[in-house]
Amino acid sequence: MKMVVLLKQVPDTYEERRLDPVTGILDRAASEPIIDEIGERALEVALRFKDAHKGTEVVVLSMGPGSVTAALRKGLSLGADAAVHVLDDALAGADLGRTATVLSAAVAKSGYDLVVAGNESTDGRGGVIPAMVAEHLGVPHLSFLDAVEISEAEVRGVRGTESGSMAVHCGVPAVVSVTERAPEVRFPNFKGILSAKKKPLTVFTVGELGLGADELSGGGRSVVLTTAQRPSRTAGRKVVDEGNAGVELAEFLAAGHLI
User: Fold this and answer.
1) Which of 79, 113, 141, 235 fits a 20 to 30 Å CA distance from 153?
2) Which residues contact 110 (CB under 8 A, 6 or more apart)?
3) CA–CA gap between residue 209 and residue 47 (Å, rounded)
4) Nearest-CA neighbor of 139 among 148, 130, 152, 128?
5) What phi and psi values does residue 207 have, to the nearest 5 degrees?
6) In this structure, is the dihedral angle defined by the CA atoms of residues 130, 132, 137 and 141, taken in order, positive or negative?
7) Beta-carbon contacts of residue 252 (< 8 Å; ≥ 6 apart)
8) For the segment 190-204, what is each residue's pLDDT rounded down to a tens digit?
């Protein structure tokens, strides 16, 4: 089985995220770029299947600027066999539609039996890329899986709902997206780090994927018209309990329309 895992490089969630005030696009130099945690969990799902099925090939795939190479190399150090990087300046600021079009073209060109992704990234929080990729590829999509079981012929999983859970399944090829209930990713070992440098990393441009203006017409580049820095927090109000703290707290919440 060949499994393609969609990874995304995002700003570190523990650091400040900024927009470039000129372009309105994410300022990637403002914080440390890392692999999105939900993407790492998707990779762990694939690697665990590979551990139990030695003939499995795991490919990590991402779209983004040159810095994404470091994220893909980390995926290789964790145990992926190969990496694919879609690198093209024309994709700067690509919206969800264009991103899904390009990713699905890269997946199709690489070949796959199963695509594994996180349910939503921690920066854009769109939560629709896996479904859009599945639509482009014309295959089933099992979304927001809290648990997943993979075999050579089908995928089964458990999807949480507002009233309980739902057992779902489909045949392969397919696309699945996992939630934060998926297992945490393993740590790379020394052997994995060394071998990552020798594993293949293929770079594609939009043209090399066979995408022209017609194929990309369903999406575009997001254009930010204005940006403003978030204002600093003002000092809060301190309530000292002198027997009436409960009343003061209730009045404060009511004044803010919080109760």
Assistant:
1) 79
2) 4, 59, 61, 84, 202
3) 27
4) 130
5) -65, -40
6) positive
7) 237, 239
8) 998 999 989 999 999
Which pair of tokens denotes residue 24? 């309105």
CB 116 within 8 A of CB 176: yes
Q: Is the whole-model pTM more than 0.70?
A: yes
Q: What would the mean pLDDT of 153-160 be, rounded to a whole number?
A: 94
Contact 35, 83 (CB under 8 A): no
Q: State the pLDDT confidence band at 222, using cuts at 50, 70 and 90.
A: low
Kindly tell me the sign of the dihedral angle through the C-alpha atoms of 63, 202, 113, 57. Answer: negative
Band (pLDDT 50/70/90 cuts) for residue 50 is: very high
Tokens 């703290």, residue?
245
Strand partners, 66: none
How many angstroms separate the Cα of 204 from the Cα of each of 66, 83, 102? 12, 11, 10
Mean pLDDT of the chain: 89
- Return the closest-CA partner of residue 148 out of 34, 24, 46: 46
CA-nearest of 35, 89, 113, 55 to 206 is: 89
At residue 243 the predicted structure's pLDDT band, cuts being 50, 70 and 90, is confident
